[in-house]
Amino acid sequence: MEKSDTVGLAAFRAQQQARYEDSLKNVGAARERERRRARATTTYASSGTRSSYAASGYGANTTTTTKKKSHAARNGALIGAGAGALTGALVTKKNRGVGALIGGVAGGAAGYGVGKIVEKKKENQ
């Protein structure tokens, strides 16, 4: 028994594959154009501001100031949890795991609180 092409199925699949490959090329080319455009129109100043030059031909310049987000609470919680776990494990004689757990939770909470206070002070400045 010979397998025959069922009403141009092979040609259809080849055409479908060609369309798929073309669409991949188009998407890649569009992404590359967007990357190049973004690189050419955005400059970063050392003061934390971003200048973007419009592609309108008039050379419009818009400057926006971006405020850096403070991670003091997160960092304080992580440092406090590590220090508390270490201290809890060293202080507890019988069950070091439980001591580390309790110390980690307590240290994390204290570190988070201190970090929040630091964030509030930075926000008010």
UniProtKB/TrEMBL annotation:
Top-level lineage group: Bacteria
Coiled-coil ranges from the UniProt annotation: none
UniProt-listed Pfam families: Gly-zipper_Omp
Domain Glycine zipper intervals: 76-121
Skewed-composition ranges (Low complexity): 40-65
Region of interest (Disordered), residue spans: 24-71
Biased composition (Basic and acidic residues): 24-35
Protein name per Swiss-Prot or TrEMBL: Glycine zipper family protein
Organism: Mucilaginibacter aquatilis
